[in-house]
Amino acid sequence: MQLSGSIPALITPFKSDGELDLVAFDALLQWQADSGSSAVVVGGSTGESGALEKLELAALIAAAVRRLKGRIPIIAGVGAAATAKSAALVRIAHECGADAVLAVTPYYSRPTQAGLVAHFEALAAGPLPVILYNVPPRTGVDMLPATVAILAGHSNIVAVKEAVADQHRWRALIELQNDRFAVLSGDDSSAVAAVRDGARGLISVAANAVPAAFAELIAAARDGRTEKANAIDAMLAPLNAALASAPNPIAIKAALAHLGRIEEVLRLPLQPLDSALRPALHAALAAFPAAAAA
């Protein structure tokens, strides 16, 4: 599996009663594929993975398989605080037809680097290709490039999503790239710089709301169309800033609700976006009128 381009980490839409909104989810899946997204992540942290039951994750993956199988890859979020729990989610993803899994470093337990190697090697012994995911502010543990270098040698570990927006960090990871292993940015604001340095794509939050813009952004950056990439990146900067004003996925769900694509429902302990933060978000979205639902 060779992953590249713009890959949205999809939100999970809920109905007003708190149940999954699979009708809205199906429409989001179709929109993403039609807009040029290269793959989709289902049930990741942007999809409120910590609030999903196993049967709900299975339902989301199955919906994605029905809509997109054979068109673009379907990546299932399987992050958990313990290896056995994460491995169980890998099995569910495989049974439901996912093409790969995205596994964040175990959170709260704060394993050592050796523990991270053992954790991901255990997941990679499973039936699906594994994408490593490092986001220290959320998990409390930082997977270092030297650790990724060890894991990149495993035949079933195919990529790393690196959310640390540091040029030295992503350049060290890019040195590990080959025909089998890819580096993907996990930070929307710095993705263009990472892709220019050789990263192959982006797993994005903001692409939930403006998928076509992000598909074009990453394609331009990869092709060396610097002026075009810079122009799109500048247009996206206010949106990236607005989405960073609250813990993810609070603001991106507010954005999609404003666009008429979902109901703005989150599961506790998350709360809707503060009213004081909405004008900036709405102004940023106004630059992309085509994103609004018909």
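Next protein, fold it too.
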Amino acid sequence: MPKALITTVPFADNNRLPLELLQAAGIDYLINPLGRRLKELELADMVADVDVLIAGTEPVTDLVMGRANRLKLISRVGIGLDSVDLLAAERRGIKVAYTPDAPAPAVAELTFGLMLCLLRSVHVANLQLHHGKWQRHMGRRLAEVTVGIIGTGRIGARVLRRIPAFGTPRVLVNDIRPDLKLVPELKLEWVGKEEIYAQADVISLHLPLTAQTKNMIRREHLLKMKPDALLINASRGGIINEHDLAEVMRSGHLGGAAIDVFDHEPYTGELSGIERCLLTAHMGSMSIDCRTRMEIEATEEAVRYLSGRALLSPVPSDEYDIQRHGL
């Protein structure tokens, strides 16, 4: 009987269909017994007799794959691939699939929620009132600020399409592949990242983590931003240098930041001591519908592959090229 190891947690909490699909296909399975994100060696100790890995964001490294003598497929619950060594998988003949569209609506909506919270200091007022302090904060409306979006793929484009419902602010955008027809009613301005840092009141990141985007925003970039600028990262931890962000915010620069993703998770770092820094626990995709869709799609790929059928969402070759050439 083939076996699947489900490392991502939670899994099938809101809908048991993924487990029913595995059972119906005669696939044995084990759900992550530790109930948290696994470390590399913890995962390596679990994969010896596994045919399929239904994976979250834990490190699926060459070391892990070297312990998995039967592993044929890594089916990623989500879109980020920085935690999977694609080139090691390729060398070992292990297929990799993912669910690129499923999480996008939920991440885009959380981004919008974070944006509105920062603009109106909802997070600060909440903390203060919980500690008995009544303070009314003067905020800004989205229609009256300049918005900067870096990355206009599946999620960034969805954020842009939601902006007109709140008015028509000035919107600066940056992407390595500009789509000049994207959201025409906003009259998007395609500019360099440096111009976004200098001119935007709200900056939101929607990028993969690659060699090029690792520590993309450091102290010098943060200091180029307006003193009251607001910064949002619901894409991947490591794009913003967390230590630099904490130092700059402690100095009084930046009006606020909202961070959903971190270099090391669970996060316990210095940003947690900064009141105007809104922190969430990598929950961008955690809406019931999107999370369920991710789990079902990843499981369907596992069943499809083990029954000898072609994958519907194999990781495309350009993702391998990103890791191969350090793009």
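About the second fold: The mean pLDDT is 97.
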